[in-house]
């Protein structure tokens, strides 16, 4: 993840708390964001502001991931970095469509879930 996240993690970590991996933190962020996205989708007619916030939070997360994989010192393989950056671009475009009620968030949830499976080492094949 980003240097800022690493600094925040070390600055706010309690010494008695178990160490968390960056993959674990990324997983938790994706899980929380995905849950908010799904929940807000069901209430979007009554609470559009909450839905827009969930979409924006998801996009901010993907923007941070894209910035991270764009760094030359990122250790992921180049093809995976390119795929993740493409997913950011897709997420940005699809979020715009969902905000305009031209698409659902289902594919965004599916993307996040697939990445979470990868972070857990479950692979992407089914």
Automatic annotation (TrEMBL):
<dbReference type="InterPro" id="IPR010845">
    <property type="entry name" value="FlaF"/>
</dbReference>
<dbReference type="Pfam" id="PF07309">
    <property type="entry name" value="FlaF"/>
</dbReference>
<protein>
    <submittedName>
        <fullName>Flagellar FlaF family protein</fullName>
    </submittedName>
</protein>
<keyword id="KW-0966">Cell projection</keyword>
<keyword id="KW-0282">Flagellum</keyword>
<dbReference type="GO" id="GO:0044781">
    <property type="term" value="P:bacterial-type flagellum organization"/>
</dbReference>
<keyword id="KW-0969">Cilium</keyword>
